Amino acid sequence: MIYFDNAATSWPKPPAVAEAMTHFITDVGANPGRAAHRLAVASGRIVYEAREAVAELFDAPDPLRVVFTANVTEALNLALRGLLRPGDHVVTSSVEHNSVMRPLRALEREGVELTVVRCSPEGALDPADVAAAIRPDTKLVALNHASNVVGTVLPVAEVARIACAQGVLLLVDAAQTGGAYPVDVQADGIDLLAFTGHKSLYGPMGTGGLIVGERVDEARLQPLKRGGTGSRSEREEQPDFLPDMCESGTPNVVGLAGLLAGVRWVMARGVDTIRAHEVALAHRLIAGLGEVPGVTVYGPLDAELQTATVSFNVAGMASSEVGLRLDDEHGILCRVGLHCAPAAHKTIGTFSAGTVRFGLGAFNTLEEVAEAVRAVAQLAQEVR
Amino acid sequence: MDSARYAVILVHSTSHAIRAEKVLHMAGISSKLIPVPRQLSSDCGVCVRVARADREAALAALAAHTVEMEGVYDV
Q: Residues near A73 by Cβ (< 8 Å), separated by ≥ 6?
């Protein structure tokens, strides 16, 4: 079996992830921040260590400005809903996932004005187009760091310089890059970084978060939910400090224990090492698929300009059929269709047929890539 | 209150308390996380206890690492 669906969630996970989660369930188990006995403190330490690890990985200066959420979608909703008010203007790109597009379309109905900057058919964004879209009432630019459909990496650091000069905040959706591609919130100038724990950080599902930069005034950030935090319990009002103000309810500590192990694994291996491996895989995959008659590969067609996520179609065969036959006949697991990103498919010209997507990860090999290319070639040969 | 054995440092939250504990550990000051004494606050959270003799060194270390404090009490 070949697992090529890492863009949806990474698998397998490093063994230390399951071990850390088992350790928490078996030996710790207590609710962090709700009591001060030894197990509650041990649980709180795991959560804090996870904040520190995430902050270190993304070069965020303050671990207490790392807010944990159930997933990156919740983090994006927190940033968008938390900061934008009717009358505000927001800029985004035409390759966003619905985790950004749907909250923005809903906010648009509530009086937020939205400009969607067009990307090229390869999924590339010209920073000058963002500069042209920024207006005096623009509050936020929201961009994914890399497309979940074609992997194209967007120039977030260039956009950050443009946004910062205009007093506009930059929100980056790092779902497809965090852990697999260098992300440095200080060097890149990212004000809000939404990340997922279960993709290239190799943690479990149910983990993610939002890093809130120093330029963001938390007094203006509305929490998505309110409730118990274990702090300021004498008050019936929500706390006004990070991270508690945005973390009501018992957190997913078993998940965060796994996330901590995953992030440590990523840091031990090194993001640059992982990136180099994935570039080599993507390079071989793009070149291999590109040589198959009847196969169209989308995106920049340059492994250096994208993540190890590659979308393609086989002429004469629906993407769903390709996916089914790759699974049934070749044991290759991938994702087909629109990938929750209709805007991106409109941009690359594959709406509403969709594409076949191979999402490669740190555990994939060049041999698997070669085998997958042979399998696709066999399917394409049958259609011709 | 010269008979005080400990200084209790109140912080915003458990996250802050654990950060304080780490900062103190790095500064070579032993500390313990304890429930906030009810006479000091009605909060249900955690605070940091150090030996009374370490009080000033602890406060200096926490200030140097910008750990925000809500109050310091000798107990």
A: A99, A208
The residue range of the domain holding B32 is 3-74
- pLDDT above 60 for B1: no
Residue of B nearest to A228 (CA): B44
Q: Are the beta carbons of B43 and A233 separated by less than 8 Å?
A: yes
What six digits make up the tokens of A128? 């000058």
CB contact under 8 Å between A41 and B46, yes or no, is yes
Number of C-alpha atoms within 13 angstroms, CB side, residue A274?
23
- Give the number of domains in chain B: 1
Which pTM value belongs to this model? 0.96
- To test the contact with chain A by mutation, choose from B12, B15, B33 the residue with the greatest count of A C-beta atoms within 10 A, namely B15
pLDDT digits (tens, 9 = 90+) for A233-243: 888 999 999 99
CATH number for position B60? 3.30.70.260
pLDDT tens by residue, A189-232: 999 999 999 999 999 999 999 999 999 999 999 999 999 998 88
How does pLDDT run across A48-86, given as a tens digit for each residue? 999 999 999 999 999 999 999 999 999 999 999 999 999
A82 touches chain B (CB under 8 A): no
**DSSP for A20-55?**
HHHHIIIII-PPTTS--SHHHHHHHHHHHHHHHHHH
